[in-house]
Amino acid sequence: MSGTFTKAMARNVFYGGTVFFFLLFLALTFDSMQGLPKTDNRAAITPAVAAGKHVWETRNCLGCHTLLGEGAYYAPELGNVYVRRGPEFIKAWMQSMPTNTPGRRQMPQFNLTEKELDDLVEFLKYTSGIDTQNWPPNIEG
Amino acid sequence: MKYKSQAVAMPYFIAAIGLFVGQILFGLVLGLQYVVGDFLFPSIPFNIARMVHTNLLIVWLLFGFMGSAYYLVPEEAETELYSPKLALGLFWIFLAAGALTILGYLFVDYNTLASATGNDILATMGREFLEQPLLTKIGIVVVALAFLFNISMTMLKGRKTVINIVLLLGLWGLAVFFLFSFYNPTNLVMDKFYWWWVVHLWVEGVWELIMAALLAFVLIKVTGVDREVIEKWLYVIITLALVTGIIGTGHHYFWIGTPAYWQWWGSIFSALEPIPFFAMTVFAFNMVNRRRREHPNRAAVLWALGTGVMAFLGAGVWGFLHTLAPVNYYTHGSQITAAHGHMAFYGAYVMVVITIMSYAMPILRGRQANSNKAQVVEMWSFWIMTISMVFITLFLTGAGILQVWLQRVSEDPMPFMMVQDQIALFYWMRLWSGVGFATGLVLYVVSFFIKGKEPEAAAA
Description:
The complex is a heterodimer. Chain A is mainly α. Chain A contains five helices and two strands. Chain B is an all-alpha fold. Chain B is globular and about 65 Å long. Chains A and B meet through α1, α2, β1 and β2 of A and α2, α4, α7, α8 and α9 of B.
């Protein structure tokens, strides 16, 4: 780096640039928050959805599955599982785990109550209604 | 070492290495579970093992960062640490909290752990990387604040060098953005939006400040290049990192229910994110080429150059590979993401922490550098770990390309689990690469126990 570009200039560019782009990020965040009601399906949030999210979190589902593409990549995407499989399949599936097929990936038995299963399904139904800009590319997730 | 109180860095480094070994053991378990699905089931299901793997990584890197700060800040500030006792106390608190958390994951049902630790009062658990119980999260905040107080007071009473200022900015940023881990609304889109304020603004934001500062410190020490030059580079690198990385958060806002314009903001700014990493590579090589001395610790120089290259490849190149929205539409949440995650974390953060440990540990043990024999073993461990990580990344990338094709691109998309069967061969090869990595890590640990005569410093 040449002698004309001094350390003081580099410092000023750092502070100036960081503040500018952080403020721009905050502005975009503010705008996103204004726009979210159109895409985040908040109208569908009920107490059952909230309870279902709690079930989802306290069983660490994200430790194997993805939800809208985020999580672990060991088991199928669940953001659209409500559409792919439907409510009854999801409940029956969870109740019949683990398969105990030798050598196959196993999902734990979480011993959820009927209400917890319904709440979880409600949460997955709400999730499937979020406008994700047409992601995933197809129903397989 | 120049200041007695720098010695508190040693237990932090030892704990970091110990937890690193644990992380890799669980990595092997996970790699095996990918191909032998019922391995260790039901005692350690995949989700538990993965949580242990990723949380150990975060905790040992934090140990590494804190140890580095305790070593570096007094030396830069040219004064003793404000309170070595506080630093030592915090070490034991953090170690106990970390160990209890990991043991809790392994031996207590996660749901039971959640209710026992206040998750019903304030639900923060069950989100990727932020799985820690509420009590642990509060513990992290308390330890972080006390740690920041200690090193900030140290800097304030001494010389305020650019390296110290940048390191402290990074560490304060780390603590501030962690606070978003306590915000967990029912609205999944908002949950995810602010979850990234912890995860992205850490690894593609403030952690880069920490990394650049640590690298700059070691480069000053091992090359003897003028501080003015190195500090100017440091400012340029962190400017590039934050200018691209802050808005670059947008590459996580493509498909999670956020407005579509993020596809433009995220793609453009994150496409520029490799630049700071490239600058770091050029910086490291440039400084070593212009060195004014031959530092006897050649292993540390190797790690410093290595972290520059591998961070650029892992974070820069493998990040760019899938960061443009039209590409990411197909690769999002696939093994491509896993490939990038592995090499980026290893290249940037694992290697920079090893760089400073490699430089500082011999000094903390009363010598300029380890014996030639010990350094040769350490350099072998560098090559074995690094090459193994390249293979892990390549095999996961291969798996990811096939997965994306079979599941998302082809005319007749296959279900997830059928695709997983198709790509098992790649998972096997990844597992063997992981065994290679573990071998390298064993050698790394062994290198600490090899004695021999201290090498002479030579003038360039």
